[in-house]
Amino acid sequence: MTDERVEAVAGEGPAVDVFEFADPREFLCAVLEEKKKRSAAFSMRAWSRQLGFRTPSYLSAVLRGTRRLQPNFATKLSKNLKLSDPAATRLELLALRENCKDSSQADLYDRMLKSLSPVRFRTRLDLDRFKLISDWYHLVLLEMVELPDFRPDPEYLARRLGGTVMPSLVASALKRLLRLKLLRKGPSGKIVRGAGQVFAGDGVPNHKIRQHHLQFIEKAKRALLESPLEQRDFRGSTFAFSKENVPKARELIRQVHQALRDLSEEKADSVYRFNTQLFCLTIGDQE
Question: Rounded to the nearest 5 degrees, what angle is found at the Cα of 243, between the Cα atoms of 242 and 249?
Answer without folding.
Answer: 85
